[in-house]
Structure formats: structure tokens, C-alpha cells
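The following block was generated as part of the benchmark described in Methods. Ligand: 3-methyl-2-oxobutanoic acid.
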Amino acid sequence: MADNAPAKGVPVPQRVRVHHLRQAKERREPLTMLTAYDAVCARIFDEAGIDLLLVGDSIGDNMLGHPSTIPVTVDEMVVAARAVASAARRAFVVADLPFGSYEASPAQCHATAVRMIKEGLAHAVKFEGGAHLTGHVELCTRSGIPVFGHLGFTPQSENMLGGKRVQGRGNVAAEKLVSDAKALQDAGAVAVVLEMVPAPVAARVTEVLEIPTIGIGAGPDVDGQVLVWTDMAGMGSWSPRFAKQFGNLGAELYAATRRYSSAVRERQFPGPEHTYES
Ligand code: KIV
């Protein structure tokens, strides 16, 4: 039996599917989303009832030691997506298309999205950008691949945007954000992530769209929230202002590691209970 197969007698939870996203919006039930990059964490988040797992290209700066998401490759994303999708029994798994793997044309975007679904076993893909990518969204959607849009601060463009900065400030920028969101919806996107956007602008986009908005640094008036899991759990030395730490896992891991290394150095581990005598 696969390690993640349900134990006998334990009901398999109903999978979150694409139509549940709009349903949640209609019922005003907030969607919960967290990033996940491996099977260990994906299983915990899934069992804890997170609706959507995002295999984010934030794997670059949160797991792989890169300064940003930009160096992340499609091959790295496929491996991570497959691990997450294999572990998640209920959550809907969304995989990011990394920088340079989709922008050039709808055909390039489609080819990368197919890899995420076919090899990565994700249920949907996400990519960054607005109205100029409607052809990309349409082609994926027509091919049966649900697409999440990503507007506001788009980390893959941080060199153009001048760093991690709030987007959509001022009337012109706010209107552009609303029209980009509508264009993505009209092209077939099933949800839109809004990152680092003033709360009133995110609220307006949420009101205008029929598909759900998922906010990160976009205030409370959106249809769901997403956080990078290491920020949520207190794993890093730094986290953005918009991210609340709901735990202190970094300190706990440090303490466990110190206890382990002391026990080895003081020859207290392994004890008789961890030793095979024959
Ligand atoms: O890669 C990621 O983690 C993301 C979130 C910031 C939404 O795209």
C-alpha cells in the first residue's frame, strides 16, 4: 500500500475541485491556500484541511537557497509538484510556471503547463501577468488545464518593478489591475491571486469578478488567503509585513537539533531502546 493511501475504514475526503472555487465565493466561504514544496509538508497541510496547495516558484527563495524565484527551473517545479500532488488527498494542487517557461507564446505556456499536469500531477497551473497573457490562458483552458492568474506584485518581474513593492496604488494603476483581472476571467482563468495590493483595490477586484480572488498582502476583503508556509509557521529569519507567524517552527527545529547533537556528543543516544542486540 502506498504510504499515503487511506487506512482501512478511514473515509477518503472529497477532493476540492475547480467548481468548488466559485461555489466557495458564492457562499462567502473563505478559501485557504498555503504553499507546499514536498510530500512531508503537503500531507500535514492536507490533513489540516487546507483547500489549495500552491507549489510556488517561491521554492526558489524559500527552499533552494536562491535570492529570488527567478532561477527556478521547470524540472525543479515538476519534481516538487509531483511530491505535493502525490501526498494531497483532498487539496486542489496548483503549480507555478517558473520565469522564462511561458511568457514567449501561448504554445510555450501550454507546453510547460502540460508538463506540470502530466508529470507534476498538479490540478491547475498559475502564471504571472495580466491582459497580455489572455491567449496563454485561453489555450490552456481549452486544453483542459485550469489556470490561476497572478496580479499585483509579480515576483518574477521584480527587476522591472524595482523590488518588492506594493502595486495598484493610484487610480490609473488600480483601474489597470481591475481590467487585467477581468481580462483573465474572460479568457477562462478560474481564480486570481492578488499579491501586495492596497486592500480597497483588492476589494474592488473581488467585487467585480465572478471567480475567486486569493490575497497575499491584499487585505481581508478577498475570497481566500495564501501564505508561504515557512512565513506562516515561523521558519525563516525574516518574513514580509503582511505575513503573520502562526507558529515558531524554526525555534522548535533548532531546539530539537541542539538536543540531538548534545545527546550524540554525550553518548546518551542511541540508548538500549534504540539498539538491536541481535
Ligand atoms: O510562489 C509563490 O509562493 C506565490 C505566492 C506568493 C502567491 O506565487
